[in-house]
Amino acid sequence: MIAEPIIFWIMAVISVVAAILMVANRNPVRSALFLVATFLCVAVLYLALTAQFIAAIQIIVYAGAIMVLFLFVIMLLNLGAPQALRERGTIQPFAAVGLGLLFIIALLGSESLIRVPRPAAPANPDLGTVQSVGLNLFAPTLPWLFPFEVTSILLLVAIVGAIIMAKRRV
Amino acid sequence: MLGQVAIIFPEYWAGIHLPSLVPYVALLGIIVFILAIVPGLIWIERVVIALMQDRSGPNRVGPRGLLQTIADGVKLFFKEDFRPRSVDIRIYYLAPVISMIPALAGGAVLPLQRLTFERPDGTTYQMPLMVGNVNIGLLYILAMSSLAVYGVVLAGWSSNNKYSLLGGLRGSAQLISYELSMGLSLLCVIVMAGSLNLDSIVATQNVLPPGIHSGFEWLRGSIFSWYWLRSLFVPVSIFTIAMIAETNRAPFDLPEAESELIAGFHTEFSSMKFAMFFMGEYAAMLTISGLNAAMFWGGWLPPLNIVPFTWIPGWIWFVGKVMFGIFFYVWLRATLPRLRYDALMALGWKRMLPLALVWLFVMAVVTLYFQPINATAARPVPPVQAQAAPAPRAASAPAPLPTLSAAAPPATKP
């Protein structure tokens, strides 16, 4: 259990630095790569929390599929030239830094950073396995089957809608 | 004599707890095997293709050209490390590394064998010879193979060459398309095995063939009870096609189609960077052939449960199956012409994906009707550390539900 805080701090620092670099970078492909690094760090954090299933899904879906599509589109549109995305004379970065500082001050003032609720007992180590996720999600005694199915139908409708809008002639 | 002959190791040898050394032995074995066998694989590929095309093949350096690959490696190592002027330097040097790492990392969850250990009180238990005995093994290997696309994409983009870029674009589109069919064909097996741990999946193939309920012990865990037959041959066909597309090999080597794209995504890479792409490709072939062997072809199980086969240790059977997978790759490369790009996409999306979806549904219904629910849906990964093995080749018995049994559905047949 001594390893968990060490892993957390290493991964937290890497993911935050990568996230900042993702926003700060002018090159879209490098930004996408930093986002992939952030996703991988988050997957390791899930593993440290014994949520194995969601860690694997994080890598497969976000790092392996969505970000590859992002890269595909970036490369297809040939946004490689860093000058293409340069913005001048905006106050956005200053506003972002100022609001971020304000948020940190607000958190410190409300003491919610110090009084993070901690579980009394250690979490069930089997909670994040594929079996327990599936059993909880599809159990008839629990109320989560219906929202799950509704969400999947919603996604299906979105897919069909995207295809119809993208196609000139259906 | 029936039953696999197992060497029984003591649990403690000179005060060392031997079972806790097993992952390190497997790690060393897999890394050394992959890195050492790649020159051999290149030699095998050239010899087999020469045989199929009726020519001599490598025959100058060393006996039967065996040292030709070593000579090529030395040549690549001493070549000038050429770099075009307008590349994106960091990503350009990162891409060969990225193409190598996921292929090597994927081998961590492949089960090589089951080792038998004897406790001090005389009871024995079995433990898989694998690096990470994790219960998301299959998801892990899929995650690693989905990360492998970054090597191709980034190499194509960072070279700042239109042919490389086209190769990278083709690579990303192709890999995303075929990953779906591959995952669905693996799901057919998961539905039947009830586990994502590759060692458990191999262990569930160690049963009598379908339709036989008693007798015929020499068929237990034989070639007829592996998942290629139990899933009725369609998933293994889909997986084999998809795995060739996943590793960018002929006839699906569109990202490096030399007749249209010079050398595709690795056009601008020379010397050791090119060698890294080459080794990464072969390591990916080994890993994914190992996945094929473990999922569909019985992993470390011998093809028949009779004496001369059961004397041979399991890891030799596993390596043999992986090597047959490599031979199959080379066979296809020597036989089939490269697909056109739209034909490749049509095959992936219009043929294989619907077939895999339909077959997954069929397999789910079949499994639901022929196996009781609590034996498939909720069979936990057997905790191998504590699993006693009454018989040497007994199938893993369904254990009680895991801790969340309150949420489990009632164990009744529909």
Helix/strand order of chain A: HHHHHH
CATH fold call of chain A? Four Helix Bundle (Hemerythrin (Met), subunit A)
Q: What does the radius of gyration of chain A come to?
A: 21 Å
Judged by helices, strands and strand pairing, the structural class of chain A is mainly alpha
**Mean pLDDT figure of chain A:** 82
Number of helices of chain B: 15
CATH superfamily heading of chain A: NADH-ubiquinone/plastoquinone oxidoreductase chain 6, subunit NuoJ
Low-pLDDT residue intervals, each spanning 5 or more residues of chain A: none
Number of strands of chain A: 0
Helix content of chain A: over 70%
Describe the protein.
The complex is a heterodimer of chains A (170) and B (414). By secondary structure, chain A is mainly α. Helices cover 70% and strands 0% of the residues of chain A. Chain A has a single domain, classed as NADH-ubiquinone/plastoquinone oxidoreductase chain 6, subunit NuoJ (Four Helix Bundle (Hemerythrin (Met), subunit A)), CATH 1.20.120.1200. The mean pLDDT of chain A is 82. Helix content of chain B is 55%, strand content 4%. In chain B, the strands form 2 sheets. A 3-stranded mixed β-sheet of chain B has the order 1-4-5, with no helix packed on it. In chain B, strands 2-3 form a two-stranded antiparallel ribbon. At the A-B interface, helix 2, helix 3 and helix 5 of A face helix 4, helix 5 and helix 6 of B.
